[in-house]
Amino acid sequence: xxxxxxxxxxxxxxxxxxxxxxxxxxxxxxxxxxxxxxxxxxxxxxxxxxxxxxxxxxxxxxxxxxxxxxxxxxxxxxxxxxxxxxxxxxxxxxxxxxxxxxxxxxxxxxxxxxxxxxxxxxxxxxxxx
Length: 129
What we know:
This protein is mostly helical. It has helices spanning 2-8, 22-54, 56-66, 69-96, 103-128.
C-alpha cells in the first residue's frame, strides 16, 4: 500500500501550474511590491531627491528626464507597487484584527485591494499625464 502511494505522488511541484486563490495572489504581490519598493525604489528616490536639491542645472535635468513618456510609465508602475502595497497592508492589518477572516470576505478584500490599487494608479496617471 505504501509503495502504491509513493509511486502516485508527484516527483516535483510545478508552482506555475498550481492555480493560487486570489487572496494568495494578493499576498504574494504584496511581498513582491515591498521588495521592489525597497530596492531599487529607495535608491532611485534618494538619487532623484539629490538631483532636485543639488543645483538648478541638476533640477532641470531631472525635470527633463521625468518628462519622458517611458520614465512616466516606469513611475506609474512604481506608483502601482506603492499603492498596492499600502492597500494590501491595510487589508493585512484588518485581517490581524480578525476582520474579513472568512473566505467570502477574504476574497472580497483581495478584489478590493486589486481594484483599489489599479483605480488609484489610474487616477494618478490622469493627474501626471
